[in-house]
Amino acid sequence: MKAKKANKPPKDNKSTRKPRYSTGRAELDAQLEELVSSVCPGAEKDYVLQIATSALKLGLQKAKRGDLKIANTALKEMRVAFRMFTPKLMSRPAPRCAAPMMPLPAPVTTIHPASAIRRPSSSARS
User: Fold this and answer.
1) Rounded average pLDDT over 11-39
2) Which of 3, 63, 75, 102 would bridge with 58, disulfide CB 3.0–4.6 Å?
3) Is 77 helix (H, G, I), strand (E, B) or coil?
4) CA 110 – CA 11 distance, rounded (Å)
5) What is the DSSP letter of 43?
6) Higher pLDDT, 86 or 66
7) CB 53, CB 23: distance < 8 Å
């Protein structure tokens, strides 16, 4: 028989919560949090704060110019893509039923052009 586990007291929420993502500089983190809170007061604030923190950490860690250009371009392109495609997905009605699956066509066997050439037999050459 398996031994029953003893009931453990619940852990404190503060001790089980992950540490906040930060730049490592307390006053910079406070300024960044204040800025993000003033711009984005909703539930998305945590993610905006993490994105902004990541950008600052790239600068603090003296990332190379090329790496910064790649990260900047990727973030800009994602923002534009989200902006372009989100309204279309939200406004399109859900399909009533799925279309029936069409059977796959039979595989086509092709003859290589070089093998299609008929060569005269050795008896015909003489």
Assistant:
1) 79
2) 63
3) helix
4) 69
5) T
6) 66
7) yes
Give the DSSP letter of residue 32. Answer: H
Quote the pLDDT of residue 40. 87
pLDDT mean across residues, the chain? 76
pTM of the model: 0.54
Q: Please give the sequence-ordered ranges of beta strands (E in DSSP) within the chain, or none if there are none.
A: none
Q: What is the pLDDT, as a whole number, of residue 11?
A: 54
Q: What tokens appear for 83 in the block?
A: 């902006």
Cα–Cα dist 112/126, whole Å: 28
Distance CA 58, CA 71 (A): 9
User: Could you tell me how many residues make up the chain?
Assistant: 126
CA atoms within 13 A on the CB side of 28: 13
